[in-house]
Amino acid sequence: MDPLDEFGGTGDWVVEMPSGTKVLNANDRGRHWGPRHKLTKQWRGVALVMARKEKLPRLERARIVGVYYPPTRRHRDEANLAPTLKAIVDGFVDHGLLPDDNTLYLEGPYPKISDELRQGGQMVMHIYRLSPLGADGADPAT
């Protein structure tokens, strides 16, 4: 099953993050803050560089889905990818993709795990342009 089926395809932009970068895991709460902070900063910086490289536009509103292609078939929990996705989205916002990452501008990010394996593991971000919310805060698409 394609992890993007429920979102209607691959999106308007696809950003392949570098493979082999260690993902942040929500279960790493007991880890010392130093290494976690360093990895968060790394993901944020890489996302900024990739957004520039891909020439991502400025959007008023978007849906972002992060698909992780793991290196092995070991069981993983999609929700544990949230810290990695947050750091990547922060890098995209630093680039100017969105004015902010709050719910007025961003739907998601949604974590998904692919059945396809990739050497070293890889996070691929799918960005969907959405219509801006109406003045009443309602989604005009519904």
Give a written overview of the molecule.
InterPro entries: RusA-like_sf. The protein has 2 helices and 4 strands. It has 142 residues and is an alpha+beta fold. It has one domain (11-129): 2-Layer Sandwich (60s Ribosomal Protein L30, Chain: A). A 4-stranded mixed beta sheet has the order 1-4-2-3, covered by helices on one side. The two termini are 27 Å apart.
Descriptors:
142 residues, 60s Ribosomal Protein L30, Chain: A, alpha+beta, globular
* Helix proportion: 10-25%
CATH topology, by name, is 60s Ribosomal Protein L30, Chain: A
Structural class: alpha+beta
Unreliable spans are none
Question: What amount of the residues lies in strands?
Answer: 15-25%
Largest sheet: 4 strands, mixed
What does the average pLDDT come to?
A: 90
Q: What is the second-level CATH architecture?
A: 2-Layer Sandwich
Give, in spatial order, the strands making up the sheet with the most strands: 1-4-2-3
Overall radius of gyration: 15 Å
Order of helices and strands: EHEHEE
According to DSSP, the number of beta strands is: 4
| End-to-end distance | 27 Å
Number of domains: 1
The CATH class name reads: Alpha Beta
InterPro entries: RusA-like_sf
What is the element layout, followed by pairings?
Blueprint: E1 13-16, H1 33-53, E2 62-69, H2 82-95, E3 106-113, E4 122-129
Parallel strand pairs: 2-3
Antiparallel strand pairs: 1-4, 2-4
Helix pairs in contact: 1-2
